[in-house]
Amino acid sequence: MSNLPIDLRVWRQFLTLAEELHFGRAAARLHMTQPPLTQAIAQLEATLGLRLFERSRRHVALTPAGQALLPEVRELLARARRLPGIAQAAASGEAGRLRLAFVSTVGFEQLPGWVRGLREHMPQVALELIEATGDVQQEALARGDIDAGVLLHSPGFAPVAFESLCVAEEPLVLALPASHALATSSRLSLGRVLEQPLVQFPRR
Length: 204
Hints:
By secondary structure, the protein is of the alpha/beta class. It is built from seven helices and five strands, in the order αααββαβαβαβα. Strands 4-3-5 form a three-stranded parallel sheet, sandwiched between helices. The protein has a two-stranded antiparallel ribbon with strand order 1-2. Strand 1 and strand 2 (about 60) form a beta hairpin. The two termini are about 60 Å apart.
């Protein structure tokens, strides 16, 4: 048996003959004459080292080997027909893989809706979700380990090294014990807040 690759055209010829079981009709479907088809099938059998068809003057039938190959060849050719569409969809961003990082707070409310929308409108995109803090996301983006990230930043302080888009705005709330000296203040400056020990999200 030869290890040489077999052209898809030859598999199309095999499939057509397997469906027609008649060299003349198969050749007509393939828009070719019968002798080249006969030669192509004979060469395929020689390459494989086995017979795919039993032939007589009035009869053409698949051998057990040909019957075993038939569904595989159908699937092979179906996959080949899908390849251009897959490539075009990937090039346009409608298919492929999206590695999306997100901060934990986004995962509670906004993220589930975004994921549903993506799967409804782009079902061919395989989504990989990665929870990470903002600093870790920026490092991963710089290395190419993720494709996009959802992180939090103050107004006017978006990361300058990357393209960014505001997808949601959330207020920040300062929580204080009722007994705290600042708890009775109706307004607080940022300076007064920063003078206090704070519990906040880790930077990493």
